[in-house]
Amino acid sequence: MVKEIVKDPFFLQQKSEPATKADSQVVTDILDTLKANRERCVGLAANMIGAKKQIIAVAAGPFIFPMINPVITKRSGKYETEEGCLSLVGVRPCIRYKEIEVDYLDQNFEKKHGKFTDFTAQIIQHEIQHFGGELI
Q: Does the annotation mark 127 as catalytic?
């Protein structure tokens, strides 16, 4: 189900908890919401749709995929950039890495490990940063 985008800074600054199989509907909702906002958004964190869970959705080219409880295990190629967020107005400076490796669960809650570079890596880093309640 497509959800409304949360713009309340107080809610967005709360930490997210690990997701469980009981959060499967959140996975469906975040994918539906990203698809519905695809023309203005390349990634979502679950808190952006009102769920304080460690779930993100990423649009990489024609593909949209979820990552449940993602953890960045390796990073290289540090750089500075600016990013906007669908939940907030304007852009903010941030530090990202050109290449990352991530352990996560897929939509079926099966363990995965992925290597991501460039813009896809940047999206993943931005969305994971939401888990700590940071406003990006």
A: yes
